[in-house]
């Protein structure tokens, strides 16, 4: 997995949907600080959060992980 692609994609998806880090962190049930750490690559995104982001943005996990460019 290309970590840089994964980090870019979760940040770009959030910004493309005009969501704040606070909104997404509340959706995931985590703190804004922890979500910011995911976007910086300081912490890895748990699978449960990956699945939730797929539902939130209506994209595949392969897209978020950088394994596919198909939404």
From TrEMBL:
Residues 10-64 form the HTH cro/C1-type domain. The keyword rRNA-binding does not apply. Gene3D superfamilies: lambda repressor-like DNA-binding domains. CDD domains: HTH_XRE (cd00093). InterPro entries: Cro/C1-type_HTH, Lambda_DNA-bd_dom_sf. It comes from the Bacteria. Pfam families: HTH_3 (PF01381). SUPFAM superfamilies: lambda repressor-like DNA-binding domains. Keywords: DNA-binding. This is Helix-turn-helix domain-containing protein. It comes from Coprococcus hominis (ex Arizal et al. 2022). The lineage of its organism: Bacteria, Bacillati, Bacillota, Clostridia, Lachnospirales.
């Amino acid at each position: 997995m290309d970590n840089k692609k994964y980090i870019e994609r979760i940040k770009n998806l959030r910004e493309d949907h005009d969501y704040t880090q606070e909104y997404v962190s509340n959706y995931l049930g985590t703190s804004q600080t922890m979500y910011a750490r995911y976007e910086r690559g300081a912490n890895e995104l748990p699978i449960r959060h990956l699945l939730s982001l797929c539902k939130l943005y209506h994209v595949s996990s392969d897209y978020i992980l950088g394994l596919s460019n198909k939404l």
